[in-house]
Please model this.
Amino acid sequence: MGLIEMKTAKITEKGQIAIPKDIRELEGFKQGDKIAILAFDDHIELRPLKSIKGGRISALLSERALAKDWNTKEEDEAWKDL
Model:
């Protein structure tokens, strides 16, 4: 898959970015659409959530990514009696 176009965006104080209009149109993003944000070691991808089928969402989540939220003292305490 080759690069189609490159644009820049500025990150706001709240960590938000605006996807340039021509990129939104190119990818079919519309107002109110949900997107999946996939973080890899060397890049980040934005994909329409509807393009990722149910079971594949789980497959995209790595053990390392889940461990950040789940490997905590609070989680251990919550699950200790199960």
Summary: The radius of gyration is 17 Å. The mean pLDDT is 79. The chain has one domain: 21-79.
